[in-house]
Amino acid sequence: MTLARPGLAELVAGIREVAYRPAEPRATAFAVAETLRERLPAPEILTAEEQAGSPDTYIRHTLHTEAGFSVIAVVWRPGQRTRPHDHIAWCVFGVLQGIEYETLYRDEGDHLVEIGRVANRTGDVSGFAPPGDIHKVHNVGDITAISLHVYGADLGAEPSSVRRTYDLPVRER
Predict the structure, then answer these.
(1) Assigned domain for 135 exists
(2) Is 46 inside any structural domain?
(3) Secondary structure (DSSP) of 94-107
(4) Has residue 1 been placed in a domain?
(5) Which residues pair with 3 in a beta bridge?
(6) Is the distance from CB of 110 to CB of 168 less than 8 angstroms?
(7) Neighbours of 132 (CB within 10 A)
(8) pTM of the full predicted structure?
(9) How confident is the model over 11-45, as pLDDT tens digits?
(10) Cis peptide bond prior to 25, omega within 30° of 0
(11) Domain annotation covers residue 93
(12) In the sheet that 162-165 helps form, which strands lie side by side, from edge to edge?
């Protein structure tokens, strides 16, 4: 039995319309971001149990995969965060609930330089593509945050969207 996910079929159809057009990865990410912005689902795309997350770490829920892209929901309880990382392909995300604080970095070889910070709130959508996509994400709010991520890779075939994590020291600009 397949779980019905409100808004997912329409979102996947819209992503297909733009994700397979010949374009540079950055242009594809921006086109998919516009599609996600127009069709951003509600948190109810996840079941109540999925929306609860885990007290131990953020949780990923794979909603759709195919050869050219994957749709993943991520649930972050307050205080949960990633390590600085980059990705194997372009990425687009939209915040369905809460606030996700993102810190952006540039790799200087022996250290990272912080190049920006942004608080992504409910309804915000953004996209990026490698290279230059090093970031970490942190739920700084007091409620569980939920975001929908679209990656330009088949995460049914790949174990993760993360290309590498960074343990380099961070220096300010």
Answers:
(1) yes
(2) yes
(3) EEEESEEEEEEEEE
(4) no
(5) none
(6) yes
(7) 14
(8) 0.93
(9) 999 999 999 999 999 999 999 999 999 999 999 99
(10) no
(11) yes
(12) 162-165, 85-87, 134-139, 99-107, 112-121, 170-171
Reduce the DSSP state of residue 153 to 3 states and report it: coil
Which residue blocks in the chain are alpha helix, DSSP H? 8-19, 25-39, 48-52
Question: How many domains are contained in the chain?
Answer: 1
The yes-or-no verdict on residue 2 having pLDDT over 80 is no
Q: Tokens 């490698």 sit at which residue?
A: 130
* Beta pairing partners, 93: 126, 149
pLDDT digits (tens, 9 = 90+) for 78-135: 999 999 999 999 999 999 999 999 999 999 999 999 999 999 999 999 999 998 899 9
DSSP 155: T
Distance between CA 139 and CA 147 in Å, rounded? 11
Single-letter code of the amino acid located at 90: W
* Residue span of the structural domain in which 163 resides: 8-171
User: How far is residue 2's CA from residue 15's CA, in Å, rounded to a whole number?
Assistant: 20
CATH number of the structural domain spanning residue 132? 2.60.120.10
Whose structure tokens read 């409100």? 6
The helix or strand, by DSSP H or E, that contains position 58, with its residue range, turns out to be: none
Give dist(CA 103, CA 100) in Å, integer: 10
Tokens of 5: 């996910």
Pair of tokens at residue 75: 């649930």
